[in-house]
UniProtKB/TrEMBL annotation:
Family the entry assigns: Belongs to the LysR transcriptional regulatory family.
Keyword Transcription: yes
Keywords carried by this UniProt record: DNA-binding, Transcription, Transcription regulation
Species of the source: Prauserella marina
Organism ancestry: Bacteria, Bacillati, Actinomycetota, Actinomycetes, Pseudonocardiales
Entry's Gene Ontology cellular component terms: protein-DNA complex
Domain of life per record: Bacteria
Name of the molecule in the record: LysR substrate binding domain-containing protein
Record-annotated membrane-spanning stretches: none
GO MF term set: DNA binding; DNA-binding transcription factor activity
Pfam families reported for this sequence: LysR_substrate
Amino acid sequence: MLTEAARVLVEHTEVVLADLEKAEAAVAELASTVGGTLALAAFPTAARALAPGAIALCGNAHPGLRVTLAELPTPEALDAVKAGTIDIALSYGYNLLPRQRDAGIEVVPLLTEPLLAALPAGFRDRGSPIALAELTEPRLTRTVSAAIRAGSAKQPSIEAMLAALRTTAAERHRYA
């Protein structure tokens, strides 16, 4: 038989244990839910071509997550990650302009993109790899140089060059 004091203690213990179970369940739910704000930075091309799809996927998978996007050049984006003002950055790099590795930043490769060249018709077999040294061939550099010199206010240089190469920017750009 319980004393009156013991009976009161048991009643309160049951309430405390029930509240503790509710608290544990709430914490477990929070742990399995991704929420808050994620600050993303991306260089201009990625901000337009890659980030919108990634942000939409995050929103669908994690409705409690808000993603903000800042368009920044790669060096500034990496500095912002290191400073803690940006959580994650989409950046680029290539072997002709290697980035310095920074111990404070983890770099995870996401994709490899081919480097495409717009060449005059008949330059060589279409679709086969080309060495950069082949792009210094006089016939090619004369064609491109003449096209650039032909540029005017009516037709910007890049348009003149593409016209000389008989192509358009849209034909040469591939999306991931």
